[in-house]
Amino acid sequence: MWKKKEVIPDYITQNVSEDLIKLVDMVKIYDTGSIKVLGLKRVNLTIKRGEFVAIMGQSGSGKSTLMNILGCLDRPTMGHYFLDGIDTADLPSDDLSAIRNRKIGFVFQSFNLISRTSALKNVELPMTYAHISKKAREKRALELLERVGLGTRYEHMPNELSGGQRQRVAIARALANEPPLILADEPTGNLDSASSVEIMELFSKLHNEGATVVLVTHEEDIAAFTNRIIRFRDGNLVSDTPNIPISKREKEELEEPEEPEEPEYQSGDALC
Amino acid sequence: MLFENMTMAVHAIKANKMRSLLTMLGIIIGIGSVIAIVSIGDTMRFMISDIYKDVGTTLAYVYIWPSDGSDMRQSDYFSVDDVDRIREVYKDEITYIDSSSQQNVEAVFGRNKVKFALEGIGSNYPNVHKINIIYGRNLNEGDIKGRKNHVVLEAEGAKELFGTENAVGKSFRTTIYGDTDDYDVVGVYRKEENPFLAMVGGSGENKEGYLPESILVWPNDTIYNIRLYAKEGTDMSSFSERFSQYIAKSKNRKREDVTFYSVSSEMGSVDQIMGGLSAAVGGIAAISLLVGGIGIMNIMLVSVTERTREIGIRKALGAKTWDVMVQFLTESAILSAMGGIIGVITGAGLVFLGGTLLGMTVVIKPMVIIIAVGFSALVGVFFGIYPASKAAGKDPIEALRYE
């Protein structure tokens, strides 16, 4: 009786653009009443489908602001943000909710799983808001948990899982509605180094399978897994450079016998 | 989606069992007292109408009572001829009429002495008032016309006097109007004990019985009060008016001097009392539901604040304003409805317990239960609107940052 008919504009459900993310002269100003704080200054940026990008910067550099805008949690003050061809600047908040639901998979630093709710139910959540039938939701959630290596732990509550396992549940949840964009905000910030490598390997795997992954981090080690590193300082985009991912580098290093040094991460051991 | 919301709500309520129970308390007390009082009222109504069903709803007593407080005149009393005349004039509308006579006597059989209240009746009295004969027969026209010393006794009295319920054919000695004579028992009846009457002490010390009216009322006697049964289905208020006017005219009195006391007017006053009681109870219920509802609103506000982060997560994952709103409305409605259900169980349980202890048949209408639970859910929705809209209006960035 309280069901409201779901009306999703066509532009949200259709893929229209090869440029998944396009920022055009985007400015974000925080108006705190007495003073105005410039969060981001005229950012122009394009990320194509299938890229694996790290956004780096110290705290206060504007990377969190950018993250909120890329995640459609916030709107630019000036300029435009096109996500999959959709200009998000003037959309009402319920349309932004629908966009977040269909287009973006979030992975947070503090996992942000819903407590006292099983891993399975957590993964089902975005599908619930997409009004997918219970049966289909459960099936897909199980598949996703299987994919992130938690196939047998679907009934566990978040507090019964380790940090790395929680983050994998969160990644499974991010993949639930097959969004074109995976947005990860310091995904390894609360993890030990072994778990961090596991999670980054998982992101690399997703990227190799065709997903677009954008992650925000301040750790060089983490950014090293990506193909492209964008650096911010004081609200300005200061550098945008391609990167050879660490896993490829490892392979190349292994092919050269005169380099006996240990690789930086014991990735093989960590993934068990 | 509604089902998901309901499971989620039950989940959230279970997570804080004690808190939820305390929150429900106002609703439990409100709904519980309403159910209890309404059921007591319905039980009373049922019993009273049951009594009147036995007595007959068209029963009326008619007498002259000067409205100005002056003394009664000799002509205000009725004679046997008057009664016969009324019977003749109103033969299409009155099925039974008598002089409403009764004598308290002491019946003697051997060494046994038992007090009886003997009611004088006409021959077709059993047609308008059920007498449950278990031995022998009712008084008949022959007994009345022949002014025979025949009686019908209640089984308990018969047993006390004769040592056996089947006293048909036995006789006892008693004195009526100074004449001592023997009276023969022609029938024994079982009095149906009405628990409500027994409770209010309606049946006196005396055993009951019937004897021919003609023994108690002689042709020259004066009758203060006539008893009549109108035809089944008569509109008593219009009949009362016409009949009173007729009596007033024949007795040379004003209409106001005639009292027409009927069971249906009595029933009306009972309904009036019950109506007043219901209004009082409704007031109490409204206040406790208001207090209970505010309690629910309070705890929902706490819950919304506690779960700010959860709300942020849900919104980030695609929950719309309406989704969050419905989630919290469902929770407060279920919380309140659960209070309503517990209240119904408590209230009905108490009434059942009381009824069992007093040996009464308890009436609890299913409709009352449905309305009570439905109404408590509505209270939950109403008082959930403010907290739910607070939850729904949260900014996802702020909510995600909440510790």
From TrEMBL, chain A:
PROSITE patterns the UniProt entry points to: ABC_TRANSPORTER_1 (PS00211), ABC_TRANSPORTER_2 (PS50893)
Pfam family, one: ABC_tran
Region entry Disordered, spans: 241-272
Keywords assigned by UniProt, alphabetized: ATP-binding, Nucleotide-binding, Transport
Keyword ATP-binding included in the entry's annotation: yes
Domain ABC transporter: 21-259
Molecular-function GO terms, alphabetical: ATP binding; ATP hydrolysis activity; transmembrane transporter activity
An annotated GO cellular component: membrane protein complex
Feature: compositional bias, Acidic residues: 253-264
Keyword Transport assigned: yes
Source species, domain of life: Bacteria
Protein name as catalogued: Putative ABC transport system ATP-binding protein
TrEMBL record, chain B:
Subcellular location per the Swiss-Prot or TrEMBL entry: Cell membrane
Domain MacB-like periplasmic core: 20-245
Boundaries of every ABC3 transporter permease C-terminal domain copy: 284-396
Source organism: Lacrimispora xylanisolvens
Family: Belongs to the ABC-4 integral membrane protein family.
Keywords: Cell membrane, Membrane, Transmembrane, Transmembrane helix
Transmembrane segments: 20-40, 277-301, 333-355, 367-386
Domain of life assignment: Bacteria
Main location class: membrane
Annotated membrane topology: Multi-pass membrane protein
Annotated signal peptide: none
Family matches, as InterPro entries: ABC3_permease_C, MacB_PCD, Macrolide_Exporter_MacB
GO molecular function: transmembrane transporter activity
Pfam families, per database record: FtsX, MacB_PCD
Name under which the protein is recorded: Putative ABC transport system permease protein
Cellular component terms per the entry's GO annotation: plasma membrane
